[in-house]
Write a sequence for this structure.
């Protein structure tokens, strides 16, 4: 008897009204629509990059310097090399400082001072890149008296440091404490333990952080506008104005010439391919290397 | 995961000392000097991070001095930007930055929340990974490539289809009037929206995933439909974190330079119509900084940079605080 009443109570739950059911389905539809609206530009951008980029990409583009306005042909070889130069400078400055700060935070930074550094890194991460450009201009260009690859490298390094610092710290904290204790137990000094045990175990994570930072700055244009400045000719000197791929894409894109527009698309394609392949190459090397511990 | 670390780390500091005491013979090789040097070298790197921020503030304040002395607070209210007569006012740029960013938020917020809700609550599990990956991929596209695409694809679409349509249907509001050139505040807002969607939606996703599972179960047990469960059980609980994500997106939109510079038209005027060209704080820096002649001109630009810096710091600080209160306030392991 009581059994049947509960069952009756169970079945007597009023059916979900039509209005509520329609709302439910409508909201699912809206959510799907938002996904389509968000992904459409992504695919449109990649499709256009390949469509316009591949058509304009040729050997000359990769091996020659820009031709004067009106002459067909020419390429962005100097800008590609310039970008590599600036990014190398940025990495040389930014990676050691970023990793060092990350080590400090993970191994010694459990205090107020560490918190201050953590907070600063987060703040730095949000500073607009164009403002970083101004500071690099004031620091390097004004003291050197001319635009230079070094100034561009400094600007990009400042942008890389916070990301590397925070990911390095996070990755080092994931390394199990017994591993450190084992090293100490063997009488290995702390600095050696940190470098050869902790950092080494976390290598793949740390490198992922570096690649994140690298990918972020590789396409940056704003901080290079008045630091590296751009250059129509070959330059491999650190203290001279230097061409960079993003700068070249920008100035070609806003130019009125069809030939330059084509080259801007080709440049954009090369830029994306360079970023993606650099990231993929390092990931692959890390996975295949001897540091598989993490 | 990091929670037990502090005490462990504190314990650790005593370990090497104990080791040296136990084996005094090997003192020379236990590397106390090495430890000392290493510790201070790492500290130096940490100080460099602090120093960078201090340096940024110092340089910006120092070099915006001449402009500050010439115009004072009036600088931010004045509307004329006349390098020839050395009259500088930042109002048109502040207006352009605000309007383009707000426009971007209006477009991006519903889209981002929709995407986040779909990925965490609605879609089949197999789609979750690829969907998040694609949305994150939007964040990896360089700003200048967005600009390039906007110039050659978005702007023609706007001027041929969208703007004529908007001016016919919504022209009476006064927001959509004037010649539909495409290059406009509207174009800047749209391209910014596309760029900030990944930020807002990834934060929202993170926040939604820490809403305890029993909130969902409770709503469903009360007979809620899936949408009602999402609205009552999930979104309401995640409000603060979502607002944090939105503000973080705003911070990015305010400082975004290249894509906006390429499509906004770069004219220092304040117009009500979104079809009119505008100018933002970041793009005036991009366009005029390397050509600025004269101390006052250059320092006026740097003062704009300082203002932009301060605003983004406040905005980002606020956002981090909001996100932090939500994601740290609750155990993170309640929802897989």
């Amino acid at each position: 008897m009581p059994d049947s009443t509960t069952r009756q109570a169970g079945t007597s739950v009023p059916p979900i009204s039509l209005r509520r059911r329609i709302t439910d389905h409508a909201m699912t539809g809206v959510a799907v629509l938002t996904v389509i609206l968000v992904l459409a530009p992504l695919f449109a951008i990649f499709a256009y990059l390949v469509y316009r980029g591949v058509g304009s990409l040729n050997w000359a583009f990769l091996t020659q310097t820009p031709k004067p306005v009106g002459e067909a042909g020419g390429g962005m070889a100097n800008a590609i090399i310039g970008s590599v130069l600036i990014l190398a400078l940025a990495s040389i400055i930014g990676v050691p400082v970023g990793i060092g700060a990350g080590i400090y935070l993970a191994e010694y930074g459990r205090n107020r001072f560490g918190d201050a550094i953590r907070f600063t890194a987060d703040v730095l991460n949000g500073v607009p890149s164009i403002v970083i450009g101004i500071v690099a201009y004031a620091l390097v260009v004004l003291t050197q008296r001319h635009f230079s690859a070094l100034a561009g490298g400094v600007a990009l390094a400042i942008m890389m440091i916070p990301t590397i610092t925070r990911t390095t710290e996070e990755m080092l904290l994931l390394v199990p404490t017994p591993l450190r204790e084992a090293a100490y137990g063997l009488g290995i000094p702390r600095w050696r333990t940190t470098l050869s045990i902790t950092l080494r175990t976390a290598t793949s994570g740390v490198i992922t952080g570096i690649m994140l930072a690298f990918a972020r700055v590789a396409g940056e244009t704003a901080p290079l506008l008045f630091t590296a400045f751009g250059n129509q000719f070959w330059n491999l000197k650190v203290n001279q104005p230097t061409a960079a791929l993003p700068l070249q894409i920008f100035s070609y894109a806003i130019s009125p010439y069809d030939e330059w527009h084509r080259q801007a698309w080709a440049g954009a394609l090369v830029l994306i391919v360079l970023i993606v392949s650099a990231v993929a190459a390092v990931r692959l090397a890390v996975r295949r290397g001897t540091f598989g511990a993490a | 995961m990091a929670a037990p670390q502090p005490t462990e780390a504190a314990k650790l500091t005593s370990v090497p000392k104990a080791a040296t005491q136990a084996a005094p013979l090997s003192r020379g090789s236990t590397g106390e000097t090495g430890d000392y040097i290493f510790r201070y070298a790492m500290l130096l790197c940490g100080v460099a991070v602090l120093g960078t921020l201090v340096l940024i503030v110092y340089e910006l304040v120092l070099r915006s001095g001449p402009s500050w002395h010439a115009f004072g607070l009036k600088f931010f209210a004045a509307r004329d930007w006349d390098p020839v007569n050395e009259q500088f006012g930042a109002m048109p740029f502040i207006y352009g930055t605000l309007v383009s960013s707000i426009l971007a938020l209006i477009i991006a917020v519903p889209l981002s929340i929709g995407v986040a809700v779909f990925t965490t609550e609605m879609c089949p599990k197999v789609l979750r990974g690829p969907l998040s990956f694609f949305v994150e991929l939007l964040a990896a596209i360089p700003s200048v490539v967005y600009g390039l695409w906007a110039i050659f694809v978005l702007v023609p679409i706007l001027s041929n289809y969208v703007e004529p349509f908007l001016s016919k249907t919504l022209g009476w509001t006064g927001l959509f009037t004037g010649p539909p050139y495409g290059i406009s505040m509207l174009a800047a807002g749209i391209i910014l929206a596309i760029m900030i969607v990944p930020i807002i939606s990834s934060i929202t996703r993170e926040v939604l995933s820490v809403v305890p599972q029993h909130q969902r179960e409770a709503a469903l047990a009360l007979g809620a439909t899936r949408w009602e469960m999402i609205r009552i059980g999930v979104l309401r609980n995640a409000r603060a974190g979502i607002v944090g994500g939105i503000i973080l997106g705003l911070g990015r939109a305010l400082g975004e330079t290249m894509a906006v510079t390429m499509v906004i038209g770069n004219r220092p005027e304040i117009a009500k119509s979104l079809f009119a060209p505008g100018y933002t704080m970041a793009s005036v820096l991009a366009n005029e900084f390397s050509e600025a002649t004269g101390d006052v001109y250059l320092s006026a630009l740097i003062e704009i940079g300082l203002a932009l810096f301060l605003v983004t710091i406040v905005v980002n600080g606020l956002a981090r605080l909001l996100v932090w209160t939500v994601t740290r306030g609750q155990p993170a392991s309640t929802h897989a």
About this structure: Chain B touches chain A through 98 residues (CB under 8 Å). Chain B has 13 helices and two strands. The longest helix of chain B spans residues 295-329.
